[in-house]
Specification:
There is one protein chain. By secondary structure, the chain is α/β, with parallel strands linked by helices. The chain is about 40% helix and about 10% strand. Strands 6-9-8-10-11 form a 5-stranded mixed β-sheet, with helices on both faces. A 4-stranded parallel β-sheet has the order 2-1-3-4, with helices on both faces. The protein has a two-stranded antiparallel ribbon with strand order 5-7.
Length: about 325
């Protein structure tokens, strides 16, 4: 699928020191051995959701390293010269095009035979700062600087399963000696994602309100999947500052739609969320976009954090 570059402003941070080591992103990750040295099929992943897929599908046959360290905001990643060299030595790369420009550049310039772009394995949509539910009635993306192709496909279990199937097929083709295991592992993962989808459908079917506020517009696909409306303070860029008018609009909307909670996330500052919540008399809670697993995460992997997200949404939306 051809994609246009996201028209989202990114706040870039200085490049990481060239000696930065690759790091695994969760307890289930393999050690960060240099790609090409493990004796296994070496996969480099751009950040946690891609690494998790590679680990789950590859199992014992793969060695997975990640370009984004635990606790680092993926949107801000600038890969080092050492990481670029390690990328070149890998057997495959799993990444999400247009999320991390420095990764896109490195992959494009590399001679890796197996390049797996998750964005090409499912359908991406344009999302602004309001997504789902009644948003379509009055949210005009035509001239919205926040509008662009939303990369947060992994937060929708259905889309994530589609990506998993594509990654599995790519690994089967790239490493045919272990194709049967990759196929079986992919089927098992998709089955778990289907079950997670059912949990969300059931858990969010009957709620007092369908609207929730987040600092970062990461949950648009999830909102659409389960009939909710996400109102984001900052749009697709987690580091941007909301305008005074946007804050006023959110406070009015919160009263009109019975919103109780402003959600923030673990990898960026909670200052804006807490200020708006305090001014509007609302609570705050964590809704994790699962861009990385750290000690602050409410779970050790994708599934446990998603279940924590479901619990937080059910509480905030008044599930019955």
């Amino acid at each position: 699928m051809k994609m246009t570059v996201m028209n989202v402003r990114r706040r870039l941070i200085p490049a990481l020191a060239a000696g930065t080591a690759l790091a695994a992103l969760s307890a289930c990750s393999t050690d960060s051995a240099a790609a090409g040295d493990s004796g296994k099929f070496d996969v480099v992943a751009s950040f946690y959701p891609m690494a998790f897929l590679a680990e789950q599908i590859g199992g014992d046959h793969v060695s997975v390293t990640s370009l984004t360290e635990p606790g680092q905001e993926p949107h801000d990643l600038e890969i080092s010269a050492k990481q670029t060299a390690q990328l070149q030595e890998s057997d495959a790369v799993v990444y999400l095009k247009n999320l991390q420009p420095s990764v896109d550049d490195a992959v494009a310039q590399s001679e890796i035979k197996t390049k797996i772009d998750a964005a090409s394995l499912t359908e991406l949509e344009k999302h602004g700062n309001e997504v789902g539910g009644h948003a379509a009635e009055h949210d005009d993306h035509e001239n919205d600087e926040l509008a662009g192709l939303d990369p947060h496909i992994w937060l929708d279990p259905v889309r994530y399963a589609q990506v998993a199937e594509g990654v599995g097929k790519a690994l089967e083709k790239a490493d045919p000696d272990h194709a049967a295991d990759y196929k079986a592992n992919t089927a098992a993962l998709v089955k778990k994602l289907d079950a997670l989808n059912t949990e969300f459908e059931t858990g969010l079917a009957n709620t007092g309100t369908k609207v929730f506020i987040t600092t970062h517009a990461a949950f648009g696909y999830l909102a659409e999947r389960y009939g909710l409306t996400e109102e984001a303070i900052n749009g697709l860029d987690p580091e941007s500052e909301p305008s005074a008018n946007r804050v006023k609009d959110l406070e009015k909307m919160a009263k009109a739609d019975g919103v109780t909670t402003v959600f923030y996330e673990t990898l960026v500052s909670d200052k804006t969320a807490k200020t708006i919540a305090s001014d509007a008399g609302l609570k705050t809670d964590v809704l994790d976009p699962i861009e990385g697993i750290t000690e602050k995460s409410r779970g050790k992997d994708y599934f446990s954090v998603q279940q924590a997200n479901l619990k937080a949404l059910r509480s905030a939306l008044g599930a019955k």
